[in-house]
Write a structure and sequence with these properties.
By secondary structure, this protein is mostly beta strands. 4% of the residues lie in helices and 49% in strands.
Length: 97
């Protein structure tokens, strides 16, 4: 019997989304089929060439979005980890405080 050890528990969902390049152009529509605090599984619409890093829009106005990095590709989709914005990443200076 195999056990999966994940940094964060995942939950099933059927959240539609859009994969966008850094310039805001749409690459593909997708459906997020599971999600955790650290990443998600996305089922792609067709077989688009998805960049290694992109922005995932989860609301029409773009207020709900995540920067993503592809960690695994498979026939029908991708697995991604969420990337913190540069401003939110810890630095040596503020980590020591």
């Amino acid at each position: 019997m195999s056990t999966h050890r994940r940094a964060s528990p995942r939950r099933n969902t059927q959240q539609p989304g859009l994969i966008c390049n850094s310039d805001g152009s749409i690459v593909s529509s997708c459906v997020m089929t599971d999600v955790s605090a650290t990443g998600a599984k996305l089922i792609l619409d067709g077989a688009p060439e998805v960049p290694d890093e992109f922005v995932l829009l989860l609301s029409k106005g773009g207020k709900v979005h995540r920067r993503c990095k592809v960690i695994r590709r498979f026939e029908t989709g991708i697995a991604v980890k969420f990337v913190l914005p540069l401003a939110a990443r810890p630095t040596a200076k503020n980590a020591a405080q």
